[in-house]
Amino acid sequence: MSLYLMAKDLPVLEIGQGECRILNRELLPFSLRKEKVALEDFYGTWMNSRALQLSRSNSKMILNSMRVSQTNAYKICQTCHGASLSDMYWFKEKEEEKELVWSEVSLFRNDISRGMASTALVGDVLRERGKIHTPELTTQGVAAKAWVRKGQELYLYKIGKKELAASAVLDTLGFAHVPYQKVEGEELDRVVTARRKERIRALDERVVKCRLIASEEHSMVSFEDFQIYCQENGKNVFEETLALDRLHYLEMQIADYILNNIDRHGANWGFFMDNETGRLEKLYPLMDHDQAFSDVEGMRSQTTEQNLDLETAALLAQTELHADLGRILQMAQPEGISEKQWAQVQRRAAELDERCRIYESEL
User: Does the pTM of the predicted model rise above 0.90?
Assistant: First the structure.
């Protein structure tokens, strides 16, 4: 089978039976920007990282409802032509070359399935039949989540009360982040049945939402993909990151220590890319705090070149940034975390401030 990988309506890679042919290197996904793209790069790296993972909550219900393979990444992506709400990429078979265009497959433009929202969020059976537009087959992460269109805006709904507390803390610090709001009342009734609501309450959880930050003008490029690009092209990924956006990189070091976020892996932070030029612009706002407020102490940072723990990485960032951590000591306990977790947040803020003063006095 022969395919075209598309950037909107522009073919950027031709995938044949035995090889790939680069058509526009500057607009390829970053993980494929190399001198020669092999079939394994496309199917094994790009496709596998794009397809819905079975580790995600309710993934089997999503796949079963659409009668899609649970093990074949190509078959999963083929159902939606690989379209995503993170970027402008999709693929089509050569036989579809003349008929199929971006406006027909774009998840930014077309209505998306309302029924799939409750399937993805709480595991309800999908009642819709026939071909549907859904971003759920290419949405990453393990938490239960679903995309919902409201007017001209798209929102990600997820189950995770920690996002509320993380948003409150990052608001107070003035750090760039994706803000979350609680979903309740009639708005919640539209995506969750009464029975499911009772179950969510019994677990002391919340349904929250955030607005989509990608667009047809700006794609999201994960640090993981950028790292592949840098390795292939002889660049130091951390030097490149600091040169692109030093401020928000430093904010991330402080935020992850204060929140004790133990899951800042390379797929949940990254960059905005200009879709016209294919160039990276800056880091996108901090997001994905499902694993924040952990009781685990001494976690290693996954976002530094040196092997540092979260506290040391934050200390080095704070000596340069001098964020006003005292604001955290003055704010009320936010919704979504326990008194113990809030006490730990305030302790980390106070200790980081003190350690920074001592560190700078000894220089």
Answer: yes
